[in-house]
Amino acid sequence: IKKLVYVYLVRYAEEQQDLALLSISTFQRALKDPNQLIRASALRVLSSIRVPIIVPIMMLAIKEASADLSPYVRKNAAHAIQKLYSLDPEQKEMLIEIIEKLLKDKSTLVAGSVVMAFEEVCPDRIDLIHKNYRKLCNLLVDVEEWGQVVIIHMLTRYARTQFVSPWKEVVMAVAQLYWHIAPKSEAGIISKSLVRLLRSNREVQYIVLQNIATMSIQRKGMFEPYLKSFYVRSTDPTMIKILKLEILTNLANEANISTLLREFQTYVKSQDKQFAAATIQTIGRCATSITEVSDTCLNGLVCLLSNRDEIVVAESVVVIKKLLQMQPIQHGEIIKHMAKLLDSITVPVARASILWLIGENCERVPKIAPDVLRKTAKSFTSEDDLVKLQILNLGAKLYLTNSKQTKLLTQYILNLGKYDQNYDIRDRTRFIRQLIVPNEKSGALSKYAKKIFLAQKPAPLLESPFKDRDHFQLGTLSHTLNTKATGYLELSNWPEMAPDPSVRNVEVIELAKEWTPAGKAKKENPDKKFYSESEEEEDSSESSSDSESESGSETGEDEEDSSGDSGGDSSESGSESEAGKKRAAKSSKAKGKGTPVFVPGRTHVLLHRMSGKGLAAHYFFPRQPCIFGDKMVSVQITLNNTTDQKIENIHVGEKKLPMGMQMHVFNPIESLEPAGSITVSMGIDFCDSTQTASFQLCTKDDCFSVSIQPPVGELLLPVAMSEKDFKKEQGMLSGMNETSTTIIAAPQNFASSVILQKVANVANVGAVPSGQDNVHRFAAKTVHSGSLMLVTVELKEGSTAQLIINTEKTVIASVLLRELKPVLSQG
C-alpha cells in the first residue's frame, strides 16, 4: 500500500500541490529510518515530487543521502541530483559539489549513477574526472550494464580531450618487434592493433596490408578471426583491393573457402578491370592450394568464358591454362570449348594460352588441332608476336604428331615466319625448321625433336608475391619495395650462444661520501647489480600506478568509509531474506569444522628484492583458522634480508583497503640481520571477494607499496558433513543458486585420487563421503559470511563429467567454476 501511495503522490503532486506538501514531513522522517530500503524509497519519492517550493528540502535531503553509509542510498542520491537539476537549474553549483563528492565513492553501485548525473548536470567540467579517472577505469568491469554504457561514453569524450592520438608508426614498430623477436604464442596480440590501423588513410593502409600479407603466409591463425576486415569495399583504391585479395588468399582454408568464393564472385563483376582480373588469378591460386575446391573453381572459371567482358574472359583463359597443366587428362571437353572461343577472343595472352593448350594436347583433340592451325595460318601476319610464337610451336607439334594433315600448313607458316619483321620470330622459325625438317646439314638433335617439343612440362607454381619478403624487416622501405634499399641494415641471425649478460649491468657511481664521526668506519655497500638476466622476471605489485601517496583529506575519507562500513553492512543485512537466515541456522547444526584435504605450497611474490632495495617478501595461505578473527583469512609472510646490512623497523604503513575490508597487521620487527629470514602472520577480512588488499610495507628508511589478492579458493574453510546432509543442503541451494558446466578429459584424469588432489589444490574444501563411485562431493563455507559452498563432480559415460557448485554466493561460485574447469580438464 505504501508503494501505491508513493506512486499516487508522484503522479498528482503537481496538480495538488497543497496535499503533496502535507506529506513532506512523512518523507523527512523516513529519511532517518534504520532500513536502507525505506531511506532510499523516501528520497526517490521526495525527489520525484515536482513542486518548486520544496527545492531547499530536496537539496538538504540529497546532501545527507550522499554521505549515507549505504551505497544503495548514495546511488539514489545520484539519481535525485538529475531530477532536482531538471526542476531548478539554478541549483547547479551546489549540485556540482555533491557530484564531486560522489565521484570519489569507491562503490560500484554508485559509480554509474553519479557519472550519469555528471553527464546531465556538468558534462563540461572535465576537471572533476581527473582524480577519479583511474578509479573509474578499474571499477568499469564490475559496474552494472547500463552504468558501463554511461561510463564508457564519458571516458570516450574524456580521452579525446586529454590524450594525443597514438602514432601509427609506433604501432607498426611494436608490431614488427613482436614479429621478429616474440615467441609465436605471444606474437598474436599484434593482429588486433594492425587491423585497427586499416581505418586510417590509404597510404597507411597500403603499408599495413603489405606487412599483414607477409605475416599471413607463415601464420594464418593470427588474422583468421579478422577475416571480414579484409573484405574489399567499393570505395577502396585498386592497390588496396589487390592487397586485400592477397591476404584473403593467404587466409583461405577448407573451413572458409566457400564463403570466400561467394565473395570472389561479387568481385569478378567489378567495374575495376584490373581488380576483376586479379580476382580471377586469386580463384586459380585457391584451386591449387585447396584441392577440395579445384573442380568447383575450374567450373566457375569455365562459366566466366561466356562473360561479356573480354578482359575477364582472357584472364580466365590464362588461369584455366595453368590449372589444366596440373590435370590435363581429365578436361578434354574444356580444351574443345576454349578452341571454339579462339575466333572471338582478341587479347594476345589469352589467344596464346589457348594455342599452347591445344599444342600440348594435340593428340587428345586430333580433329580440332589441325583446323585451329589452318585458321591461325590465315591470320598469322596480323597476329601479335606472342601469338605468332605459339602458332609456330603448334605447327611444330602437329608436324611431329600428324604430319599427313599438317605438313603443308606447317611449311607455309614457317615460310611466313622466315620473313617476319620480328627477329625473335625469325630466329624461332629457323630453329624449328632445323629440328623438325631434317636435311643433310641437320645434326643429331633432329632425332630427338619429338621429345623436345612434346616433353611433359612441369605444372606452374601459383605462389604469393610476398612469399620471399619475410627476410626484410617489416615496416621498412626494403620490405615495401621487395629490394634492398640504400642504408638498409639486415637483421642478424640469433646467436648460438648467448653473449655475456654482465655488459648490461649498471655501475653505481658514488658522487660524494657521507660524513661519519671520527673513529667510526662506515661500511661501504657493494655495487648493486641491476637487470641481471639470470634472475627470474617476476611481476610485483609495487610497480602499479597506485603507489603515489594520497593527500591527507583523501586518507581521512578512506578512514571514514572503512570505519562506517560496518554500519552499512548492518543496514544492508537487514534486507536479507529470513529464509536465508533460517537455512544458515539449520545448516550450522548439520556441519562442523573440517580439516584441509591438501595445503598447496605455492607462494606469491609480495615484494621483489630489487624493488625493495634488498628486502624481499613472499606470502602464502596456510589454510588454517585465523587467530585474529573468525572472519579473517590467515596469511603468512616471509621476509628476507638479501643485503649485507641490517634492515630496521619493518612494519605495515598506510593501508588502502576497499570498503568493508579489514586487516590485522603483524607487530613491527625491530631488525632483520643480513641474509636473515623471518615469517610473520596477518589476518585479512576480504569480505568474500577477490579484491586486492593494498598497503605499504615500510622499513626505517623506505616505504614500498604492495598488495595481496586472494585466489577464490582461499576464501573458503572446509566443512565436515555427511552425504545425507550434503544432499539436503544441495536441494535447498538449487535453482538460481546452482552453477554447472561440462568437463571433457581423458579417463585417467577422473580417478578418485586425481580429482581429490586437483579440487583441493584449487580450493580449501573438505571431502564428503559418497556412496557412489562416480560422484565426488566437497563442502566448504566462506570465511566472512559462513555461506555453504557445495562442489559436486559427477562422472558421465565416456570422457565427460558434470561440475556443479551450489551456494548463495553466485559470484564466488562462477569464479570458482572458471578456475576448476581447466584444472580438471588438463592431464
TrEMBL record:
Basic residues: compositionally biased ranges: 582-592
Location within or outside the cell: Cytoplasmic vesicle, Clathrin-coated vesicle membrane; Golgi apparatus
Listed GO biological process terms: intracellular protein transport; vesicle-mediated transport
Domain spans labelled Beta-adaptin appendage C-terminal subdomain: 715-825
Residue spans of biased composition, Acidic residues class: 533-563
InterPro entries: AP3_beta, AP3B1/2_C, AP3B_C, AP_beta, ARM-like, ARM-type_fold, B-adaptin_app_sub_C, Clathrin/coatomer_adapt-like_N
Main location: membrane
Keywords, ordered alphabetically: Cytoplasmic vesicle, Golgi apparatus, Membrane, Phosphoprotein, Protein transport, Transport
Residues spanning the signal sequence: none
Membrane topology: Peripheral membrane protein
Family, per entry: Belongs to the adaptor complexes large subunit family.
Protein name listed in UniProt: AP-3 complex subunit beta C-terminal domain-containing protein
Record lineage: Eukaryota, Metazoa, Chordata, Craniata, Vertebrata
